[in-house]
Design goal:
The chain contains 15 helices and 4 strands. The chain is mostly helical.
Length: 432
């Protein structure tokens, strides 16, 4: 072999080695999946300070609109800081006894621009999960608007994310005991909706009813704001559910489809129930139905097919309507904006429905009763009961600690009558 041929052969060998190395690096991070997850993260982020803030503020009374906005905004801000300092580590750090993550990722220690989770940068995964923490605590707010001190809400939110949200997130998504048991929760039936809905009910009971509740009309400030908020939530929920696949693939596409279908079906069934029993379909009812359907499909989105999503949405709309219009009235609790009625009740239905309808044809990770696995229903029931119990007891403890730190949870009677926009913030949303 001549010297020239030897050099040419060595050159080709180096070229192929470099090409193989680049290919291996490219396989580690999939740019298509990464692009989708960045978009999905932005969609979920929009849900809290835009969608939920408008949805809740429109339902609150005119004198408390800005306070509701402020409490929603601050929830996302607190969640953002807590998550990158220690929340991510508690939820997704190395498993400790199936109950909590370790502290190895404090301040995202050990994670850098080269870190990969699945096929996306770990930084993107951290941010995606951060948006879930931010919206979950904000959902609780719907049970206590009009009467909770702003300072007390801040302390409560910090404690609740730390002591309640992070453990449940670890149980389900971080390799904890629920994951090991085989519980199915694609995008947050247990972690987000049951958890927040039950916490809202407990907080509202411990806080007490609003002055005049049940005796005077408490009209929403702007149904248009609520409807716009519901539309933004619907839009953002595609990132919430389809993004939870962490990849741009067929399961994500299916999750996208069934999310939209369930929301639309629940809006129609809520409207139908309201039309039959109240003799008129309201825009507030239609908007609430959309959210009920979105909540119910969340744990099932990556596991169920189109027919199942129609049934899940149908039942969610009816359940949501009766929870808000009948159950709350009968039991007499003051869940201001129906966080428990919509998120708690419909979240429970969605988690149970996942055990019924999970299809191996959609996702090999889940098989429900309809497809020959009755055991999955019992697993789902255990996960639901455990989440309810932990959230209820844990939230009660957080409320007591918050009360001790802040000297009380509730605003003064004069401030409640005047309105929290003016009394606490010195601002007004509307000129009247």
């Amino acid at each position: 072999m001549t010297q020239e041929r030897i050099l040419r052969t060595l050159s080709w060998a180096v070229f192929f080695l470099l090409t193989a190395s680049n290919a291996m690096a490219a396989d580690a991070i999939d740019t298509g999946n990464t692009s989708w997850m960045i978009v999905a993260t932005a969609l979920v982020m929009m849900m809290t300070p835009a969608g939920l803030a408008l949805f809740y503020s429109g339902m609150s009374r005119y004198k408390n609109v800005l306070n509701t906005f402020a409490m929603t905004f601050i929830s996302y801000c607190l969640g953002s800081i807590i998550w990158v300092v220690y929340g991510y580590s508690l939820a997704f750090g190395p498993d400790v006894g199936g109950m909590i993550g370790g502290l190895s990722h404090l301040f995202l220690n050990g994670i850098d621009v080269n870190s990969v989770s699945g096929s996306i940068p770990t930084y993107v995964f951290v941010l995606f999960q951060l948006t879930f923490a931010g919206i979950t605590v904000a959902l609780i707010l719907g049970s206590v608007v009009d009467r909770m001190k702003f300072s007390s809400w801040i302390v409560f939110a910090v404690l609740w994310i730390t002591l309640i949200y992070c453990p449940v997130a670890h149980w389900v998504w971080g390799g904890g005991w629920m994951a090991k048991m085989g519980a199915l929760d694609f995008a947050g039936g247990n972690v987000v909706h049951i958890n927040a809905g039950v916490a809202g009910l407990v907080l509202s009971l411990m806080l007490g009813k609003r002055k005049g509740y049940g005796k005077e009309a408490m009209f929403p400030s702007s149904v248009m704001m609520t409807a716009l908020g519901a539309a933004l939530l619907w839009f953002g929920w595609f990132g919430f559910n389809a993004g939870s696949q962490l990849a741009a693939d067929g399961v994500a596409g299916s999750a996208f489809l069934v999310t939209n279908t369930s929301a639309a079906m629940a809006a129609l069934s809520w409207m139908g129930a309201e039309w039959v029993f109240n003799r008129r379909p309201t825009v507030l009812g239609i908007a609430s139905g959309v959210v009920a359907g979105l909540v119910a499909i969340t744990p099932a989105a990556g596991f169920v097919n189109l027919p199942a999503s129609l049934l899940i949405g149908l039942v969610a709309g009816i359940l949501g309507y009766f929870s808000v219009s009948r159950l709350k009235v009968k039991l007499g609790y003051d869940d201001s904006l129906d966080a428990f009625g919509v998120h708690g009740i419909c979240g429970i239905w969605g988690a149970l429905a996942t055990g019924l309808f999970a299809s191996p044809l959609v996702n090999s990770l889940g098989t429900g009763l309809v497809y020959g696995n009755p055991k999955q229903v019992m697993i789902q029931v255990v996960s639901i009961v455990a989440t309810i119990a932990f959230s209820a007891i844990g939230t009660a403890g957080v409320v007591l600690v918050t009360k001790a730190i802040t000297g009380g949870l509730r605003v003064e009677l004069e401030e409640e009558v005047e309105g929290l926009d003016s009394a606490l913030h010195g601002e007004r949303a509307f000129e009247i």
